[in-house]
Each structure stands twice: as C-alpha cells, then as structure tokens.
Amino acid sequence: MGGLALLARARGHRVSGSDQNVYPPMSTQLREQGIELRDGYRPEHIDAQTELVIVGNALSRGNSAVEHVLDAGLPYASGPQWLAEEFLVSRRVLAVAGTHGKTTVSAMAAWILDAAGRDPGFLIGGVPGNFEVSARAGGGDWFVIEADEYDTAFFDKRSKFVHYRPRIAVLNNLEYDHADIFADLAAIETQFHHLVRTIPGTGRIIVNADEPALGRVLARGCWTPVETFGGAADWRAGFAAADGSRIELRDPRGGVHRTDWRLHGEHNLLNAPAAVAAAAAAGVPVAEAVAALVEFENPRRRQELLCDAGDVRVFDDFAHHPTAIRRTLEGLRQAAPGRRLLVALEPRSNSMRAGVHADELAPSLKGADRVVVLARPELNWDAAAVLAPLGESLRIAANVEALLVRLERWARPGDTIVFMSNGGFDGAPRRFAARIDPSKIRVTDGD
C-alpha cells in the first residue's frame, strides 16, 4: 500500500493514508515523499471530496473506515485493480511469485534492468537497497512487480497476482502459508494455476525445477514457454568461493558466468538465476545481467546489517516461515562460520500465530546457538512446549524489553544476532543496535 501511494504521488495525485502502527522503513520513505500518514482507521481521515479510496486487503467489513466509504458512497478500488488499470495496462509486466524470496528476486530483476539502462518501473514489498524506495513509475517498457498470492480485498477474494497479467513470470517456490485464507496447499496451487492462465503464449515462465507443488501447477495447464532454474535445470548457480562471496552461473546455452556479490546463502543461489533468467527474457544479455549482481544490495529487512559494534553484528530479517528461517540461518553461518549465532524471533504472521508451522519451527531454528522468542498473549500455542527440542539454548520472553535484556546478557564479541519478524517487532532490532556498548559486552556466556 505504501508503494501504491508512491506511484499515485508520481502521477500527480494528492495522497494521504491511514494505517495502524506504521514503522520504518515504509513510514520514513512515505514522509520523505510528502505523503501524509494518519494513525488509525477513522472516518474523519477520509475527506468528502476524495476522488478514490484504495482499500488494502487487511481491512474487512466492520472496519470504521470501510463502513464510512460504503455509507458515503465514495468511489473505491483494490490496490491491484487500481495498479492494473492505472499503470500496468500500458507496460510489459515482469512478476515474481512464490512463498519466499519474492522481494529479493523482484529487487534483483529491477536492478538488473535498471543497470542495463531499461529504466523499469517497479512495485516491491520492501525497500530495495539499490533504489531506496519501494516503488517508482519508471520510464521504460518494463514494470517489475512482487506478485503476492494473498487475497485482493474484502470485496475481491482472488489472489492479487491475477490482476497483473504478466508477460514474464517467475515462480520461485510454493509451500503452505496464509492459513487464514487458504485451507491447504492445493488451494494455493489453484491460485497459481489461475496466474499461469493469464500469461501469454509469447511470454515466458521461469520456474523452480525443484518444487513439486509448482510442477503440479504447470501440469494443470500451461500455454507459455517454460525455463527452469535450480539443480538439474536450464539455469543453475553454485558458489565459487567458500564464504559465498563469489558465484558461478550457467545459462541454458552452456555459458558460464562468474561474479563477486554481497549476498550469501543457498537460497540466493536460487534467487540469482531466477532474476537473471527473467532479465534475459526481457532482453538483457546474460553476461550483462550477471555483471550487475556485483552491485546488488539486499532490500531492507532482508538480512539487513544494522550495526557492527564491538564486533557484534546485528541483522534485521523479514523471515516469517520455517523454510525462510532455516535458509537465513544457513546463509549467516556460511558467511561467518566461526561466530555464535543468536536469534530473536517474533512469530507474527497469521499462520505463525495460529500454530500452523509449529511442528517445523524448532527444526528451522536448530542452526542457532541461542534463541529467544517473543510470546505475545495473542500467540495461540505454547512457545515453550513447541520449541522444547531446542533445550537449554531457548528462552521465552513475555515482552520486547525482556527480550532485549536477555540478548544483552547473552551478547559477547564475535556474535551475530538476527531479529526475525514480518512486522515492526516494536522497533526491537534498532533499539537493540542502539543499546550496544562495546565496553559492556560480556566475555562470558551469561545464563
């Protein structure tokens, strides 16, 4: 929604918005762009002369702002509908879909196109490090969009991505998530099938060859040329340095391309060929696309390094699914194998709070040396019981302050500390980074 506000502003509209508990980096970039933020969903925040209200999919009937819009007869639309009609109808769309990695692959594809002089527009669910804004109109033919499978609005229960009509689509992966709207994985596969039905025969689908669910999606019908990435696939990547700082990418014609880069982790060995393949389908030479990766910067809150004080590194990460948690920890281990790895986790997504991923959560955290979990009252499961397999490495915190105190007791020089949440976490990552004083970091483990 913040990205849509930026795009509307770029078109010359006067834009304001209402939300609850807005937090950086989105709140910061909106204010910097002169977009007024109002706290809370209050009818008086919506001027009677408003030309259009764009309703986010987090709002339902019964919300006071929604009821006011309906009662007053104000014109309204969903974000995806407005975007499709206002921006995408005249553009060539490159969409990135999947359970994980959408933000990184979208940002990477946008950066490659930009470095190649294509001046793409984009709408990404995070703030790309190379652009410092989550959306822009761009002046070129291509528009890159992070294509989410979540439903569109209270009045449109289709997945958002069916509005986008992409010419190139990356299907990154597919696992069960969003338990609040999908009964099972098969229901999500149906939505991905609907997306595939919208891609023209002259377009391209870039699909993860190692994902059985995506294989089932394409088996239901596909009318578009397909290229694969992954293990035994058309596009493949591997590490050319033990610490992950250099990679080697192979294209479908047998070409081998090497580059240094700033990322790490096995998951990025899938993100890179996906983005390069998509950019190649958009007309960027492969060698040029790979060369652009050396300057690629991870989006904010995707393994974002907040500080390195007293030899303690603090990262902020958006991981909200056991698979993403595991892959993030593996990547941090690879980048610094000799460092202790401490995790602060807020189970915040609807699926996490409902306990849908409970059985997978402890195994996903096994890669950490210490774990502290924020157990808010709305958590529908017993965090201590679910995560008991972690043994003495686990602590449960009832609030953010207790979590920060625990981390301060644990922290010592040489540690890597990563905060994981898909929400604001009450500002915990930056609060902790600000509290680090190298002179107070203990050399012993603490209790």
Please characterize this protein's 3D structure.
The two termini are 43 Å apart. The protein contains 15 helices and 22 strands. The protein has helices at residues 2-10, 26-32, 64-72, 79-86, 102-115, 185-197, 212-219, 268-281, 286-292, 322-335, 350-354, 358-364, 383-386, 400-410, 428-435; strands at 16-19, 36-39, 53-55, 76-78, 92-97, 121-123, 135-136, 142-146, 151-153, 156-159, 168-171, 204-208, 226-229, 236-239, 246-250, 256-260, 304-309, 312-317, 341-345, 370-374, 394-397, 416-420. Helix 5 (102-115) packs across helix 9 (286-292) and helix 6 (185-197) packs across helix 7. With 447 residues, the protein is an alpha/beta fold. The strands form six sheets. The protein has a seven-stranded mixed β-sheet. The relative contact order is 0.10.
Q: Which helices and strands appear, and what pairs or packs with what?
A:
Blueprint (H helix, E strand, L loop, with lengths): L1 H9 L5 E4 L6 H7 L3 E4 L13 E3 L8 H9 L3 E3 H8 L5 E6 L4 H14 L5 E3 L11 E2 L5 E5 L4 E3 L2 E4 L8 E4 L13 H13 L6 E5 L3 H8 L6 E4 L6 E4 L6 E5 L5 E5 L7 H14 L4 H7 L11 E6 L2 E6 L4 H14 L5 E5 L4 H5 L3 H7 L5 E5 L8 H4 L7 E4 L2 H11 L5 E5 L7 H8 L12
Parallel strand pairs: 1-2, 3-4, 5-8, 5-11, 6-8, 11-12, 12-13, 18-22, 19-20, 19-22, 20-21
Antiparallel strand pairs: 6-7, 9-10, 14-15, 15-16, 17-18
Keywords for this entry:
six-stranded mixed sheet; 21% strand; alpha/beta; single chain; 447 residues; seven-stranded mixed sheet; 15 helices
Cα distance spanning the termini = 43 Å
Provide the gyration radius in Å. 22 Å
Unreliable stretches, pLDDT < 50, 5 or more residues? none
**Which band does the percent of strand residues land in?**
15-25%
The profile of the biggest β sheet is: 7 strands, mixed
Number of strands: 22
Average pLDDT level: 88
Overall SS class? alpha/beta
Helical coverage, percent range:
25-40%
Looking at the structure, what is the overall shape?
A: globular
Number of helices, where a helix is a run of at least 4 consecutive DSSP H or I residues: 15
